[in-house]
Every structure is written in C-alpha cells, then in structure tokens.
Design a protein that fits this description.
10 helices, 5-stranded antiparallel β-sheet, 3 domains, Helicase, Ruva Protein, domain 3, DNA polymerase, domain 1, 20% strand, OB fold (Dihydrolipoamide Acetyltransferase, E2P), alpha+beta
Length: 194
C-alpha cells in the first residue's frame, strides 16, 4: 500500500492531479476539497493516499488530510457506494458537514450532493450512524505528521495565505516533531520575523 506521497505538483485538472515523486509521475484522483488546498504548479505537496484495486484498473486517490481519507474509506464500506459517490460526497461537503448530516439525519443535504439519490442518502444515514463513534475515535488517534501538516495548511489558508506562500512557510519545518499549533506558530514567525 502507498500511505502518502510527497513530491512536486506537476498538473491539476479536476478530478486528476499528477505528483512527481523522485522522477516518477503519480496520477491521483482527488475530491474538490483537496483541490481547494492545492499549491501552485511546481510546488512541494504531501497527500495521504488510498489505492483502490478493481478488475480493470488500479486507481490511486489523494487527500489533503487524514480525516478526508478516513471518511472516504468508511464510505466505501457502505453498500452500493463506490469511489465515485465517495468522492462526490467529499467534493460536496466537509468531513464535519457530513458528520453533522449523519448525526442530525439530514436527508435533504445529502441528496443535494451530485450522484446521491434518496435511496443512497437513506442507506448512508442508516449505515454510517453506527460508524460515527468509531470514525471519531480514529480521527482522534490519527495525529500523524501528514495530518498535522494538512491541518496547518488549512488553518493558514483560512488566515488568507495563498497555497504557494503556505508551501514556502512550511517548507523547512518538520511536522513529525511539532503539534499543529506549533507548526502554525513557527510558520507565521518565519514568514514575519521580528
């Protein structure tokens, strides 16, 4: 399995992007939630991944954060939900928004996602309700370096920095040794010394 890829962003044409990792171009499919956080072409990028093996193809999916990948994997376990619908859900709402829909049994919001009809939405509400506590526990346990860096990127984007600026700000920092808060604080300190 390929857990994550770190390399240079070569191309981005939703839903596909290409990442150059040591001279090998990995083509990945990603949800729009990931595309919103992509840096400029030529910038360094780290994505957590999921490989989906079918009879006719091996497809690599890329995500900007561990919570996205966890939700994607959980959605694939729901009957009649494949990668297309799972990507559609991640493209149409945030992980927190999806959790809220399941907790509040919000059928209307789920059916607004392209590719999710009433029957699929009902199945999601039924099958995911039992998985929410499990998912929440996995999210709390998954505070690895990739997730930390993705969280810091999201916070810096929310502060108004551009993806290219964020890549430069985080370039020399080690997310494995810092918490998300420390990573953000250090990135801001380096961007605005003095």
């Amino acid at each position: 399995m390929i857990g994550f890829l770190k390399g240079k962003l070569v191309a981005k044409r939703p839903p596909w992007l290409t990442l150059d990792v040591g001279g090998v171009g990995y083509e990945l499919e990603a949800p729009m939630s990931t595309f919103y956080h992509l840096p400029e072409i030529g910038s360094s990028l780290t994505l957590v991944t999921h490989m989906h093996i079918r009879e006719d193809a091996h497809v690599l999916y890329g995500f900007s954060s561990e919570p996205e990948r966890l939700l994607f994997r959980s959605l694939l376990k729901v009957s009649n939900v494949g990668p297309r619908i799972a990507l559609g859900i991640l493209s149409g709402m945030s992980v927190a928004g999806f959790h809220r829909c399941i907790r509040e049994k919000d059928l209307v919001s789920l059916t607004r996602v392209p590719g999710v009809g009433r029957k699929t939405a009902e199945r999601l509400l039924l099958e995911m309700a039992d998985k929410l506590p499990e998912l929440s526990g996995e999210l709390a346990a998954s505070n690895g370096a990739v997730g930390t860096e993705a969280e810091a990127q999201g916070a810096l984007l929310a502060l108004g920095y551009k993806s290219s600026e964020i890549s430069r700000m985080l370039k020399n920092l080690d997310p494995a040794k810092l918490t998300t808060e420390e990573l953000i604080r250090e990135a801001l300190r380096q961007a605005h010394p003095g």
